[in-house]
Amino acid sequence: MVVKSTALTHVGVIVTRPIGQSRPLTALLESQGARVLSFPTLKITALDDPKLKQVVHDLDLFDHLIFTSVNAVAHGMVVLDDFWPQWPIRQAWYGIGNATAAALRTYGVDPVVPSVSHNSEGLLALQAFEKLDGQRICLFKGEAGRGLLPETLVQRGAELDVVNCYRRELEQKSVYELRQLAQFFQVPQSKYLIANSNESLDNFILLAQDSQLPWQDLVVVAASERIADHAKQSGFGKITQANDVGDKSLLEAIQEWCDNPRSDD
Q1: What digits encode the pLDDT tens for the residues 49-93?
Q2: Under 8 Å CB-to-CB from 162, ≥6 apart: which residues?
Q3: Phi, psi of 232 (to 5 degrees)
Q4: Which residues contact 197 (CB under 8 A, 6 or more apart)?
Q5: Are 156 and 131 in contact (CB under 8 A)?
Q6: Domains plus CATH for the chain?
Q7: Are 42 and 197 in contact (CB under 8 A)?
Q8: How far, in Å, CA of 122 to CA of 136, rounded?
Q9: Cα distance between residue 265 and residue 262, in whole Å
Q10: CA distances (Å), origin 244, targets 9, 58, 117, 184, 241
Q11: DSSP H helical segments within 87-138, as ranges?
């Protein structure tokens, strides 16, 4: 049972996670008294990558299986699970971030999670990836995205297969949704924008600019240092960085800013 609090009574938060992925965070913020607007800026579309069909048959030949996100698990594991009634035992499984790892565990695997940084850099810092001469790796990810992880794995000697499980697209908004966003800005309260990726942030700016809204007044809650840097470069002057992408960390970042507001202006 979630205990209601009034700690964030005068706080408004925009959550930009895709449809179907925002409810736990929204519930957590609302339990602390925050006024939350769910405003997805990314649409997740499954891809029928031919490489996935090949990987399904060759799964037992890989040394490492890496999933970069919850979406990679959702659109990759469902295909693997249909083919393998019991998982092969020689592979190591990896999830970048606790949420990704939790999604993998629902399929009965026990993934390794980077303990320091829940990102590509954290994964690459693991001892298992220091020297990869001849080791086979399959990377399950979204289309496009950062090139650091696949490029570095190949540089370290891995035989790499990449499966693009999904595509991120701009979530188109109705007149009603844009009106809700405008009304959010009109309420006299501290206003925060949770940014889980550079793309979600860019799409929000595009939608807010089209509606001529003062998006630069928002406090950006960045899920990583990379996103925080991108927010600053995009024109935001108030940015707080969470320890990771987890719901609790995002809440704590908002609470910390409430206690110690600041500005980069």
Answers
A1: 899 989 999 999 999 999 999 999 999 999 999 999 999 988 999
A2: 51, 138, 139, 141, 150
A3: -65, -45
A4: 42, 168, 223, 227
A5: yes
A6: 11-41+171-259 (3.40.50.10090), 45-169 (3.40.50.10090)
A7: yes
A8: 20
A9: 9
A10: 24, 33, 8, 26, 8
A11: 98-105, 120-124
